[in-house]
Amino acid sequence: MLVVVALIAAIGVMAAAAFTGGLAGVQLRQASREVASQLRHARVRAIATGTPQRFTLDPAAHAWSGADGRTGELPPELEIRFIGARQAQASEGEGAVMFFPDGASTGGRIRLVRDGAAWDIDVAWLTGEVRLSRADVP
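Predicted structure:
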């Protein structure tokens, strides 16, 4: 009886890993959600405090910094691509999104890629809305 339960549990774990893309897929989704969450936090802080807030991303260092001195790192296995306004960049090779007190932003897209899977985090320039979506990798 215990052997049957153990086999069912093992099959369930393998099936779940196959459907979700395994640990690499979980890591990619988790990193994407974290970046989107921090972008949303920066937007909310800009509106709440009435002062512009900057979210910066350093793809080479796999690190980000956001509102209220928040910082974090992204897994080194991820490929990070940033498309955004050059005027908001703090330094060469670094991406940045500025959020303004009215909720607007400089806009941009952050793409996180791993093992042929990708997620896009889009920031609308007019509204500052942050959207997370699965992306097709060319």
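Summary: The beta strands are 53-58, 63-65, 71-73, 79-84, 95-99, 108-114, 117-123, 130-135.
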